[in-house]
Amino acid sequence: MSEEVAIRLPNPADAQQLLALLDRLQQESDTFTLADADDPISPAQEADQLTQITQSPRHLLLVASLGTELLGVCSISPTPQGNVGELGIAVEKKYWHMGIGTALVDEALYWADTASALQAIGLIVQTRNVAAMKLYQKLGFTRTATPPKLVTDDDGEQVTAVEMVYQIAEQK
């Protein structure tokens, strides 16, 4: 494979391929869940959302691509607290353990530290997802004092999850 994986902002032309990637990720992982999965959107609506996201200091969407193929996605979305973003990440299974998830999260945290209006990035991770927990710890996330809780995975199974947070450096 002579091409390198690129970490980049998606553009409106990526909308259809991004929707297809999200569908594949949803099918192959029981730790990746889309909030609005039951309310599908069209490629035109997705293209519009991509444009809006690029103009927001509280939203970020990154994709990992190999040539023209999208193979991973990372997002930061504001929570109801307003100054805290929630991290979401997924990479196609055939590309796991190649450093792509690390590169996506690292780039997202760089954006959070240097360009966002956020004070912290949080996430909830299933404790059975050991690789993800190690990745988050390596990149500076710490477990919060919030006790573990049960979440429902895509198969309807109750699994234990913990909350982790990344504190953003003093405002720019």
From TrEMBL:
<dbReference type="GO" id="GO:0016746">
    <property type="term" value="F:acyltransferase activity"/>
</dbReference>
<keyword id="KW-0012">Acyltransferase</keyword>
<protein>
    <submittedName>
        <fullName>GNAT family N-acetyltransferase</fullName>
        <ecNumber>2.3.-.-</ecNumber>
    </submittedName>
</protein>
<feature type="domain" description="N-acetyltransferase">
    <location>
        <begin position="5"/>
        <end position="169"/>
    </location>
</feature>
<dbReference type="InterPro" id="IPR016181">
    <property type="entry name" value="Acyl_CoA_acyltransferase"/>
</dbReference>
<dbReference type="Pfam" id="PF00583">
    <property type="entry name" value="Acetyltransf_1"/>
</dbReference>
<dbReference type="InterPro" id="IPR000182">
    <property type="entry name" value="GNAT_dom"/>
</dbReference>
<keyword id="KW-0808">Transferase</keyword>
